[in-house]
Amino acid sequence: MANAALSTPGIPMQPRGLEKKQTWLERLRKGDEVVHLITLSGAWSIIVITGLLVQHLWVYSAIARHTFGWRFLFTSTWDPVNGLFGAWPFVYGTIVTSILALVIAIPIGLGTAIFLAELAPRKISDALTFLVELLAAVPSVIYGLVGIFLLIPILTTAMPYFQKVFGWLPIFSGTFYGVSYFSAAVILAIMVVPFIVSISREVLLAVPVSQREAMMALGATKWDVTWRAVVPYARQGIMGSIFLALARALGETMAVTMVIGNVAQVSTSLLAPGYTIAAVIANEFTEATGDLYLHALIELGLVLFAVTMIINALARLLMLTMRGHEVTG
Amino acid sequence: MIVSRSSSNSPSYPPRSRKIINYIMLSLTGLCTLLVVSVLLTILVYLLWNGVHALNLNFFTKLPAPVGQSGGGVSNAIIGTLKLLALASAIGVPIGLLGGIYLSEFAGGWSAFTVRYTTDLLNGVPSVVMGIFVYTLVVLPMHHFSTLAGGIALGIMMIPIALRSTEDFLRAVPRSLREGGLALGASKSETIFTIVIPAAIYGIITGIMLDVARVAGETAPLLFTAFGNQFNSPGWLQPTASLPVVIYNYAISPYDEWHQQAWAAGFVLLSGLLVVSIIARLILARGKKLSHG
User: Of B35, B36, B44, which to mutate for an interface test with A (greatest number of A Cβ within 10 Å)?
Assistant: First the structure.
């Protein structure tokens, strides 16, 4: 092709036959095109399925969308008997539990990732990472089981002492019944920590040694090297892991349903029972009587879908810029 | 040249305060690791302990007993989970494999971008939303819950990971192998099926096993597709019990016998998953050993 561009217009430098590609029919006969089309149909069926998913969520939430509009998300009355649906308690619960889970999980996860990437000998680090990654495969319903029978009793025992110190804060006031935003957030934190650890560790390990050596040559301590040279270099990847963890926390259903108490109310206290979007869908979907009720629940699914999509996209974007950064820098 | 270490009376560098911060922060990261690992180990040990104590032969062979009677099992849920996984693999694996082959061997330009982007999108769909989707897609037209609906939900959830792992392992096959095949006069499709895929087969199998293990524990999409059943579910068109849903229902029930069953079911499910994950990793390690001589 480059040759053709260099040559005098109209006079090809090579004989025609050499440049001639196989025709579509020839490729079809040889089997290549058949395989191409079969794999293509497999690949495009994914697009069809995803398209159907969006279309179904949209169509089957139509009644609720038309009846309530944007008010749906910001009013607090959830009264299926009288056909009033306001989703604010669920939206609030979802936001509160996810943010609180991240507040707990980020420092611990990042600390662990730093230890595994920078301090621990490679073999120990690999073994511990293997363990942490295995635990990412534990189903959420099992975290819920452990939450009900292990975490909640522990929290109930510890809470009076905790409240003696921090009870004056409005977010830690009131009676603690075991099921609460706080319990849900702790379980979520345990569930997302493996994600933060394994991705952040990868990113930290990918930081070039020269970056560390340069800092060390300036007389920095090990911690200075890690905190000022390594972590900033890897920050986009770490942010990406946090966004992925957030998306996972927002959509998490079973474990949260089992420990949050499932009460449709908005409370300032983190120790009060609450509800999340995913939990209300899981609990009420099979009991939904009437189209409006069903559509309201599906609209909640649509909201959850849209929000997690946006956050996942942001996470991908951060990871992508990270990769570009590595190549150019 | 030998430099004598005579700097003992000059101020030490880095200064003491920074050394102290160094030690504090580094030990904090160690504490974080200790905390994470111990929490995770506690969960495992606690589950194993309770699970082993609640486990007996009846658990595997009997149907659930009515409330108040002891001695029932969850044989129907075990069979249900196996049926759901078989159906899910039948749906998810072929599409994932084909998509993976397409992305790695054929795709380029906007088509590859769209497929890749959509796969990421599908992978990020919360499992409870997948349940809603299959409910509107299968359960509403058929007017009842079924094994079929549950299998479809799990199958769709399997696609993204099957595709991604297939694509990654095919891409890892060296270009020289492909060129060797083509140089011998094989067509592109012959090269793919006789050279590229066999070279990556251990990785592909590992990816699929991990994928199955991942969806085996999914509960939320089964709640409104496979639903649940106190009895065996014949064929594919009846509601069926499954281990994750049984764990959920028994755990939130007020009865102590059911709690015991939930622990036993959790133990069986988790040990199944962990065994599959570990075998999958061993297969991958073996494959690597074989291909590197």
Answer: B36
